[in-house]
Write a structure and sequence with these properties.
By secondary structure, the chain is of the alpha+beta class. It has helices spanning 16-22, 28-41, 49-85; strands at residues 129-131, 138-141, 144-149, 152-156, 162-166, 178-179, 182-186, 189-197, 202-208, 214-216, 218-221, 228-235, 243-248, 253-256.
């Protein structure tokens, strides 16, 4: 019996992988040539230029919209800050309307009025007439007193002496309107008094002095309209000589005396 020969370990270089590694490899130039032939045999499709342009436009629009929105927000924030910091000033009042000068209206001058066209002068107002009882003392001012009786006029001055003027002694005509005048005074003025008679409608007695000055006298009369009465007034140093004038209630002159 032949003895078994010892087992020889396998050669590592004799494995399949080693066999593959030991196989001949194509040259790099051949590989490049093979790829080139394959590439030439492929017909490339058209380049998608329109899709690329459309995508670019979409990206640009999005970028523009984003920038616009950011700009609007930035401007709004700036305006809000300015409004908040700017003090509010009252608006100036509106200008006043320009004054328009009135339009001149030419009118014809009125024709001068003649005496016939002038209205009649108003009659002077009646003198204040006071009805007194017989013997009643009336204070005429400045120390003078007057009273009336059935026979005439009585009066006293500052010295206290008494005077009398009769209406029944026949020296006056009670049927004809007239006026009498008595005066006493000094450099400071004068007291004037007198009778008026001959009328039951006596309305006024005036003293006309220098410079057209008129002094209105006060009238005294007994009850029952006896047809006569007493008047009195005071004049100043500048009045000079005066003249008494008697009027009726309608303003008609009934009598007058010369200046004295």
């Amino acid at each position: 019996m032949t003895p078994a020969s010892p087992t020889t370990p396998p050669d590592p270089d004799s494995t399949p992988d080693a066999a593959q590694d030991s196989a001949p490899r194509p040259a790099e130039a051949d590989v490049r040539a093979a790829f080139a032939r394959a590439a030439f045999e492929v017909t490339p499709g058209p380049m998608p230029l329109e899709a690329v342009r459309r995508a670019g436009r979409i990206r640009r629009r999005r970028r523009t919209t984003a920038l616009s929105a950011f700009s609007v927000l930035t401007v709004a924030s700036a305006v809000a800050a300015v409004v908040a910091l700017t003090p509010v000033r009252p608006s100036p009042p509106p200008p006043a309307p320009a004054a328009v000068p009135p339009t001149a209206v030419r009118t014809s001058a009125p024709a001068p009025r003649t005496g016939a066209d002038l209205p009649p002068a108003l009659p002077p107002a009646p003198s204040p007439k006071r009805v007194v009882a017989a013997g009643e003392r009336v204070d005429a001012g400045k120390g003078w007193r007057i009273w009336l009786t059935q026979d005439g006029k009585h009066w006293t001055g500052p010295e206290g002496y008494e005077n009398f003027r009769s209406v029944v002694d026949g020296n006056i005509d009670l049927t004809t309107p007239d006026v009498s005048h008595q005066s006493e005074g000094n450099g400071e003025g004068a007291f004037h008094s007198g009778l008026y008679y001959g009328t039951r409608t006596a309305g006024r007695v005036e003293l006309k002095g220098a410079g057209d000055r008129v002094i209105v006298a006060t009238l005294l009369e007994l009850p029952g309209q006896p047809g006569w009465g007493v008047w009195y007034a005071h004049s100043g140093p500048a009045d000079g000589d005066v003249s008494p004038v008697l009027y009726d209630r309608a303003g008609r002159q009934l009598s007058s005396l010369p200046v004295s």
